[in-house]
Amino acid sequence: MSKNAIDTGILLETGTNELEILEFYINEIRKEGQEPVPNYFGINVAKVMQVIETPNLEPPESAPHPSFMGTIPLRDLILPVLDLSVWLELDMPKTERDIVIVTEFSKSVTGFLVSGVTEIHRVGWGEVIPPSHIISSNTDAIIGLIDKGDRFVQLLDLETILTQFEPDSETEMAIADTTYNVLVADDSATIRAMIQQNLTDANFNPIITTNGDEALRKIMALKATAESEAKDITEYVNLVISDIEMPLMDGFSLTKNIKEDPILKKLPVILYSSIITKELRHKGESVGADLQVSKPDLNTIPQLAIDLIQGGAG
């Protein structure tokens, strides 16, 4: 029996540094003969289309990745199903009660096989503990921990997982005729490395931070240095590029802080996410973001940055 699409009806006020997550679990056999132990994970509710029963797929011999289980029809789509336990290297026993979480983000629809779902939580990004000491074989896919008292919920970055399956698109790279300083904020090491390489290749000097809180502290330090040396802030940073979903402080809150500062507000801000919906775009506009980009289009950022810095974009 299919479950209804996830819809909580809660609209989070922009700049409150909050999000809603769907908590689910993957059972793991840790010792032979003992009961499986649940591992708890969470993903942004906005990425969830639907939750359905397991299609009981048998992985094809020619699978492009060990976690690829095959494809299923859903509405007018044919979507791939990935066994999340395989990717996370968890020994999950398969049962008839397993479910598939159908997600839509980064311009693609994908199903993820898990053991079950628990509930939806509304949490503040400030509650998300950065994953600096998480023991996992795929730490790059875990962007933080949420302490629920009796368990920790690991917040997953599904985009990192999908990069294993989708080849990078080739786009001619713009080259800046002047070296600009760009502050970048992203919690994913994979995405940070991609953006850093793209910006460096385009003659930018990227200043890399791992979340909105660190980015805000960095830009405030640059502002203090500029003021102490009686220089303009643009001699230290010309533009800010930020992910929206990050531990401690999200991109909306970071942008709001920048745009409400009388010195920093002149700096253009580009926000990006795997889910630039109409509602999220409205939120970005309300905090003053100059541009908002979908993660599959990150390779266009150098050109967008050049246009914004040089005043060529509205």
Please give the structural blueprint.
Blueprint: E1 18-28, E2 37-44, E3 48-53, E4 68-74, E5 77-83, H1 84-87, E6 99-105, E7 108-114, E8 116-124, E9 142-147, E10 152-156, H2 158-162, E11 180-185, H3 189-201, E12 204-209, H4 212-228, E13 239-243, H5 251-259, E14 269-273, H6 278-286, E15 291-294, H7 301-309
Parallel strand pairs: 2-10, 5-7, 11-12, 11-13, 13-14, 14-15
Antiparallel strand pairs: 1-2, 1-8, 3-6, 4-5, 6-7, 9-10
The percent range for helix content is: 10-25%
Tell me about the largest β-sheet: 5 strands, mixed
CATH topology of the largest domain: OB fold (Dihydrolipoamide Acetyltransferase, E2P)
Q: Got a strand count?
A: 15
Tell me the number of helical segments per DSSP (H or I, 4 or more residues long). Answer: 7
Oligomer state of the chains in this structure? single chain
Alpha-carbon Rg, integer: 21 Å
- Principal-axes shape call: elongated
Structural class: alpha/beta
Major β-sheet strand ordering = 8-1-2-10-9
Q: What is the CATH superfamily label of the largest domain? A: CheA-289, Domain 4
Query: Briefly, what CATH class of the largest domain?
Result: Mainly Beta
Mean pLDDT, to the nearest integer, reads: 85
Number of domains: 2
Approximate strand percentage: 25-35%
Distance between the termini: 49 Å
H/E topology pattern: EEEEEHEEEEEHEHEHEHEHEH
Spans of at least 5 consecutive residues with low confidence: 1-12
CATH-defined architecture of the largest domain: Beta Barrel
InterPro entries: Chemotax_regulator_CheV, CheW-like_dom_sf, CheW-lke_dom, CheY-like_superfamily, Sig_transdc_resp-reg_receiver
Domain Response regulatory: 181-310
Keywords: Phosphoprotein
Protein name: Chemotaxis protein CheV
